[in-house]
Amino acid sequence: MNKTTKIIVELGLGIVIVGLGIWLYLSMMEPVKFDNEFNKRRAACAEKLKVIRTLEEAYKLTYNCYCGDFDTLINRLMNEDSMRVVSKVTNRDIIPEDVDIDMMPELEALKKGYITRVEVYMNPIAKLREDGKLKVADADGNLRELSDEEVKDICYVPYPKDKKYKFQLDAAQIEKNGFTVPVFECKVDLIDLLADMDHQLVINKISELESINRYPGWKVGDMTQSITDGNFE
Predict the structure, then answer these.
(1) How far apart are CA 184 and CA 170, in angstroms?
(2) What is the three-class DSSP state of 90?
(3) Dihedral through CA 33, CA 34, CA 35, CA 38, nearest 10?
(4) How far is CA 20 from CA 16, 95, 182, in A?
(5) Are the beta carbons of 219 and 230 closer than 8 angstroms?
(6) Which of 39, 67, 102, 187 could be 73's S-S partner, Cβ–Cβ 3.0 to 4.6 Å?
(7) Structure pTM?
């Protein structure tokens, strides 16, 4: 082997070795990147699902049932003054000067007429904003209030960015211990949430969850029992 040929062979081997090193590095990093993206998407879904739960709870408080349709849920909560709210009015003009109303039990104050309970009807979304219940955490963990447009788009899964998937929403009445109770469930399958990611890694993640009897996705509520927990909590 002459010198020139030897140099060419050594260069070729060097390129192969470097290429193999890069390939091995990328192969090792791919699952790490997948897990990081998986966790990011889980967190984004969790924030939306918590808001959907808040909206469903407001709907139930107002209409005595849950809602299985996003259009109806959002439209009624945003456009109807339907939430019954009980507030207290302090009648200070009849309270003696030597009475500290703040130290008096509420029932006693009610009996004496020092305070009065007043029922009013409010817009549910306005009430939720007033109570600070329409907030989500951003990527840095800071809370911010959702805009009306974001509330209207709460039905859409946050990923993939280039395709709009809707959360699956259901509601019903079930029999439990002799009582009829309302239930709801909102969920997204991983196969949709991770549709633009490495297909084999997605299948592996789904199989991993199914092997331990876990739902392969994220959800809040349940159609078989009266709970509003999320499997991301």
Answers:
(1) 6
(2) strand
(3) 120
(4) 6, 86, 58
(5) yes
(6) 67
(7) 0.77
The DSSP bridge partners found for residue 137 are: 143
Residue 84, SS3 per DSSP: strand
Strand residue runs (E) in the chain: 83-90, 115-122, 135-137, 143-145, 168-176, 179-189, 217-221
Q: Which residue has the tokens 């849950």?
A: 66
| Bridge-based pairing state of the strands 83-90 and 115-122 | antiparallel
3: left (phi over 0), alpha (psi -120 to 50) or beta: alpha
What gap in Å lies between CA 63 and CA 103, rounded to an integer? 36
One-letter amino acid of 26: L
Question: What are the tokens at 69?
Answer: 């349709």
DSSP one-letter code for 159: -
- Token pair belonging to 76: 């009624």
Instruction: Say whether pLDDT at 148 is over 60.
Output: yes
- 71-125 tens-digit pLDDT: 999 999 999 888 777 677 788 888 888 888 788 888 888 888 888 877 778 889 9
pLDDT recorded at residue 187: 97
First CA to last CA distance, the chain: 67
**In this structure, which amino acid lies at residue 161?**
K
Hey, what are 47's tokens? 């924030």
